[in-house]
Design goal:
Strand order of the largest sheet: 11-12-13-14-15-16-18-17
Number of helices: 9
Number of strands: 18
InterPro entries: DUF604 (IPR006740)
Number of domains: 2
Pfam families: DUF604
Largest sheet: 8 strands, mixed
Order of helices and strands: EHEEHEEHEHEHHEEHEHEEEHEEEEE
Strand content: 15-25%
Radius of gyration: 24 Å
Mean pLDDT: 77
């Protein structure tokens, strides 16, 4: 990776072509040609906040009515800003949406491209061009463009926290690797997987907007949007002397089928997004995918910085290990396990823990404390190894957690509720 070198933005030459007449943008009254933003962004020393971010989302009219609840779960009317780009003009039922809905546009018709007949996957090219089309909306004082699919749930506060660490005035491409080893191997370990979001700094998007269609002509064979973006960025680096800084700083989930085990062992770092929600099992038992996301967002709306932060503690009298993923789940293992083992996702042939999932979250004003409650969703079914001094946790039906950092377990055999009291860690305290 290259060093973080400042660039003279005034030297970036723009040769943008105007929007096609077929472009429809609900949020804008289009008359004549749009004016594109200046090639020199406004650079200030103020901290980055949500108003400095524009979200560009890709969707399809055929599936929008099914994916709409996922965007609504995280979208903040009149606070977040961005555009949902659809492949065709919306049907009448979606043309009269309230002002609190996500503004939507229609992707430009790529038939105008000379190389269109040779493009292997036109839909994928259209998805990549959404970056350029988002930039062409002409929003001012933008520091970051965040690209995602319509089936992605974003956690905005955590996203702002991550992006605020970087200098938005230089070329940044920020994302995360896939959790799929094969995908990383095929598409290189330095490629961000865009469905679950990646971020581009304003200067980088400005540079891309002037060259993107030329790059598309060079990579007609690419069938994956993320791969196309990586190829285009490499082209800009080698042919246009673009000094690019690539950062893998996202903590996101981009996987298939069962996600619960990953969410229950998320590291102590900001959790930014969920992706492929329709292709995984619901993350909460007894709920469908949409209900699960809305339930999960109850904790996210209270404190995103704590979301999924794993804490481990022990109840020595019962020989129990506790692993808590804040705002999602709490596990009880009927033996003492090392922290290194509890940090790893639960494996298929490992004895299953007693699993409890988020039921409610409450804020107590007088104590200035947030208390989350987790309830058992299924019978454990396996006895404790009593000859080793371990005790069964079958009687526990509810776990209540208050505070953060280190923790103490409050449990008596006469109760079916266990309390976990988080507290500041003591000096030189060792948790083992």
């Amino acid at each position: 990776m290259s060093s973080q070198t400042s660039v003279n933005l005034s030297t970036i030459k723009q040769t943008l072509s105007p929007l096609s007449l077929g472009t429809l943008c609900k949020s804008l009254a289009i008359s004549g040609l749009k004016q594109y933003p200046s090639s020199t962004p406004i650079i200030t020393n103020s901290p980055t906040n949500v108003s400095h971010i524009v979200f560009g989302m890709v969707g399809s009219m055929n599936t929008w009515k099914y994916k709409k609840p996922y965007i609504e779960a995280w979208w903040r009317p009149h606070i977040t800003w961005g555009y949902l780009f659809l492949d065709v003009a919306p049907t009448p039922e979606f043309q009269t949406l309230p002002s609190t809905s996500t503004p939507f546009c229609v992707n430009e018709n790529i038939n105008k491209l000379k190389v269109y007949p040779k493009i292997v996957r036109p839909v994928q090219v259209q998805m990549v061009r959404t970056i350029m089309e988002t930039f062409r909306q002409g929003d001012e004082d933008v520091r970051w463009y965040v690209m995602a699919d319509d089936e992605t749930v974003l956690f905005v506060d955590n996203l702002v926290e991550v992006l605020a660490k970087y200098n938005h005035s230089i070329y940044y491409y920020i994302g995360s690797n896939s959790e799929c080893v094969e995908s990383n191997f095929d598409f290189s370990f330095e490629m961000a997987f865009g469905g679950a979001e990646y971020a581009l700094s304003n200067p980088l998007v400005q540079a891309l907007a002037t060259k993107l269609d030329n790059c598309v002509e060079r990579y007609l064979f690419v069938t994956i949007p993320n791969m196309a973006m990586k190829q285009i960025l490499l082209y800009m680096v080698f042919h246009h002397k673009l000094s690019l800084v690539g950062i893998c700083d996202y903590r996101l989930i981009y996987t298939m089928t069962c996600m619960s085990r990953l969410l229950s062992t998320h590291p102590q770092s900001p959790f930014l997004s969920l992706h492929h929600i329709d292709t995984i099992n619901p993350i909460f038992p007894t709920m469908n995918c949409s209900e699960s996301i809305n339930h999960f967002m109850k904790a996210a709306k209270v404190d995103q910085s704590r979301l999924l932060q794993q804490t481990i503690c022990y109840h020595r009298p019962s020989n129990w290990s506790f692993s808590m993923s804040w705002g999602y789940s709490a596990y009880i293992y009927q033996n003492i396990l090392p922290r290194s083992s509890l940090w790893r996702p639960l494996e298929t042939f490992r004895p299953p823990p007693h699993a409890f999932f988020l039921d409610s979250i409450e804020y107590y004003t007088q104590q200035n404390q947030i208390v989350t409650t987790y309830i058992r969703r299924s019978v454990h079914g396996l006895p404790a190894c009593s000859f080793t001094g371990n005790h069964s946790a079958d009687a526990i039906t509810k776990i209540q957690i208050g505070g953060r950092d280190c923790c103490d377990i409050l449990y008596t055999t006469s109760k079916n509720v266990t309390e976990v009291k988080y507290r500041p860690c003591g000096k030189d305290e060792v948790i083992a």
